[in-house]
Write a structure and sequence with these properties.
The protein has one domain. The longest helix is centred in the middle third of the chain and has 33 residues. It is built from 3 helices and no strands. The protein is an all-alpha fold. α1 packs antiparallel against α2.
Length: about 80
């Protein structure tokens, strides 16, 4: 079940990357400042969606496979 959720999140990250790339291409091809501004706003929104999805994927991956080993090591070092 968790692997399926990770696969879905990974697919969303991939789709968002392609979408941002497509918007960047459209931004470069924009002829007017208004078109560039519209593409810039869309790219910013898409990049935010990508960041949120990537953070969620990271959290889910940590929950499934474990993690925080580095965090525990840092805590132990700082206590010493």
């Amino acid at each position: 079940m968790y692997e399926l959720n990770l696969s879905k999140l990974n697919a969303k990250v991939s789709d968002n990357c392609v979408f941002v790339s497509h918007l960047a291409t459209r931004y470069q091809a924009a002829a007017t400042p208004e078109e560039r501004m519209a593409m810039a706003i869309k790219m910013e929104n898409a990049a935010t969606m990508l960041r949120i999805t990537a953070e969620r994927l990271a959290t889910e991956t940590k929950d499934v496979y474990g993690g925080n080993k580095h965090g525990e090591a840092r805590t132990e070092i700082s206590k010493a």
